[in-house]
Every structure is written in C-alpha cells, then in structure tokens.
Amino acid sequence: MNYLEIANSRPMYLVTLFILVLLMAQAVIFFRMAMKRAKELKIEKQVIHKAVKAAAITTIVPSIAIIIGLISLSPILGIPVSWARLGMAGSMMYELTVAAIGAQAMGTELGGAMYSPQAFANSVWLMTLGVTPGFVLAVLFLRKYKSGIKKAVSKDTTFQTLILTTILVSVQMNFIAPAVIGGGNALNAVVIAAVVMAVLTVCMVKLKWSWLKEYALSISMITAVGAIVLMQI
Amino acid sequence: MNKNKSYEDSVYRLGRVSAIIFFLATLMLPAMLWFKWGLLPTKEGFIAGISVIAVIIIPILIGEFLSYAPIVGAAGYFVMLLSGNWMNIKIPASIVALEATELDSNSEEGDVISTMAVATSAIVTEVIIIAGVLLLTPFSSFFEQPAIKTGFEQIVPALFGALYIATLVKNPKAAVVPTIVGFAIVMSQVVNSLFFIPVIIAISVLIATVIYKIGNRKQTIEEPSNE
C-alpha cells in the first residue's frame, strides 16, 4: 500500500475530524464563558457584536493563506495530517521544518522519491510531539507567569503600555526587517500594505470613518497581495 | 473582585483540561498509523529526529511562550494553543477587535473581548479550512497559478507592514526602540533567524525599561513638587 493511500484513508480523516470537534468545542465554551463574564461586567451587546465582527473579518484573508499551505503540503503528507497540523496547533513554517527533519532523520527527503511510509510516520510523530513543550508551559506556568507580569508592571499603566507595545513591535520587526533588507516582493508587500494602512488611518482619524477600523487590516493585506499578483502578470 | 477570581479559576481549569485532552487526541494520528498499519519510524530515525527537534524547538517554544503570553488574555492563550496560527491570525484578530471597541487590552473588559475575538477567529479559520478541504481540487488549480501563488506568499509581510503602521500611530514613541533593535539584530545576523523574536524582545524591553526609569527619575528630580 502506498503511504499516501494510508495518509488519505478514512480512519485518518475520522481522527482529524475528532480533533477538530475538540478544538471547536473548546473555542465555543470559552466564548460562552467570556459572554457570561461580559454580562457581569456590563459590556454592551453592541460592543461585543463589534468585536466579533472585527475579529471575523480580520481572520478571513490570512485563513485563505492556510488553504494555500494545505494545497502545497497535502500532496506530501496527505490531506488529514496537513489539515490537522496546519489548521490546528501549528503553523506552516513549523510543520514544514519538523516534517523535513523527520524525513531527513530517516535518511530521505520530504516528498522525495525515497520518502517511505516509515519516514512519513516519523514526520507525523515528530510534528505531534514537537509541540509538547508549548502545552507543558501553558498548563504548568501560564498562570504564574501572567500574575508575575501583572505584579511587575501593574502599578504603572504608562509603563505597562510601553512594555506591551515594545513586545508587539519586536514581533512585527521579526517579519518586517528581513523583508525590508531582503527587498523584492516581500518588501513591496510591506510597503504597499503600510501605505494603504496609513491612508486608511488618515480617513479614520480626519474623516471620522470609524466603521473602517474593522476592515482596515484586511483591505491593506488584500491590496498588497493584489498588487503583487498584478506585478507578476 | 470575587467574581473575577472565580472566572479566572474556571478559565485556567478549562484551559488546562482542554489542553491535555487535545494534546492526547493529536497523538491519535501517529498512533493510528502504528495500530492500524503497523507503521513506525525506525528507532534510530526517531531518536535522531527528536534530538534535532528538541534542540531547535524547545528554545523557540519557550521564546513564544514568554513573548505572546503578555499580549493575550489567559483564555485567549488556551484557545490559541489548540488552534495554532498565533501571529498570523489570532493576535491580529484580537488587536483589531480591541481597536474597534476602543478597549484597553490590560483591562478586564479588554481581556473578555480579546477572548471572544480569539475564539471567533479560531472558529472562522476552521470553517474556512473545511470549505478549503471540500473545494481543494478547484481551489488548487486557481491558487497554483504562479502569479496568485507569489501574491499570497507575501501575506505575512503585508499583514505586519499594516499592523506596524497601526501600532506606530497609536504609540509612536514606544515603537522607536524595538524598530531600531529589530533592524540591528536582523542586519547583524548574530543570531539564527529562528531566535529573532525572543532576542529582539529581550533587548528592546531592557532598553525601553532603562530609558523609562531614567526619564522618570529625571522628572522627579526636576519637578519634586509633583511627588
């Protein structure tokens, strides 16, 4: 039996669907808990509606990028494993790196002609076990860490905002700086999206188009991607 | 306050239980390969792979934990843990939701709204992926066109270019230090790119804290009447 037949078999789909159900259930339960808490805090329904709409809209464009990841990964790992790993618990970079290491450790290459059923099994085991530290850290230390941070910065809200913004911009720089330095399409994407966002921000502030807030990020991304597609033609 | 405590308790209880159950469930994929088809990696291959991964992944995951836990509420963190795609989907969704509602991420209200945003985002992503799986064949031919593919490959830089402007407008002074440090670290190539985030954060937070403390002290010396 070809390993891809196994990878795309019904039992593998069933396990993936089971994992998906768990994930959705957890998200729904947390949402309802937050909803109940929001009522206690007397947060208006309109505010909740706005937040949910904004989050949903912002999610659409980058989620399409996951489908593209799925298209490139599924011929190698089969649909269920690619789906379970890309759409749940992981991300494209992580899964590709680990799956490739798994193949290499078995003396072959990811998706290569010699990529055997055993090498496939190795990739799947490593992708699954590789995230263990993330789960252990969250289960054992998240509460301690978060209350530690709260204590360290809570007395001073200006300082708190400064630290949070510093962390956020640091994460952004991880993606922006290489694009700016490397140039090419990545640089175009950064610049176009940034310019569009700047124009939209001016509209939001000067023209008081506050409804734009929910769409600004998506519009900026779509414009940049669209512009790059046009540049290729 | 008491209600807040009990909300927090139930968030951590549900978060921990769901994380453990979910992790065990993900093990069913490789376990299925083993029990149903007897597919196992060779012992040498598995040990070689797991040792490489331990060396690379453990520091990355610790860095992610330290970096992202402060910017998302606990409930949101547990939802992200299961649904993945943190920086490219969940955190932007939470930021935009907080912006749209004009709530502060540090407030209790902000925490609740951020949780709803991350949970909504997780559900929307999964629904889109289900649609993607069902329509994989027609999608493949569309997205595999070279121009379309090249465009979508740049979604992450586009996302962060736009997010950067949004952050810059809100808090320009705070963006200065991490911007300079970010470029310095990336250009100097002193660390492997896998560790850019934790290194940039550590150095930037340190410098920002020192500048802030010095500024504060100067202010107290210059304006003692304010104290």
Automatic annotation (TrEMBL), chain A:
The chain crosses the membrane at residues 12-33, 54-83, 124-142, 162-181, 187-207. Keywords: Membrane, Transmembrane, Transmembrane helix. It comes from the Bacteria. The keyword Transferase does not apply. This is DUF5058 family protein.
Automatic annotation (TrEMBL), chain B:
It comes from the Bacteria. Keywords: Membrane, Transmembrane, Transmembrane helix. This is Uncharacterized protein. The keyword Membrane applies. The chain crosses the membrane at residues 12-34, 46-66, 78-98, 118-139, 151-169, 181-212.
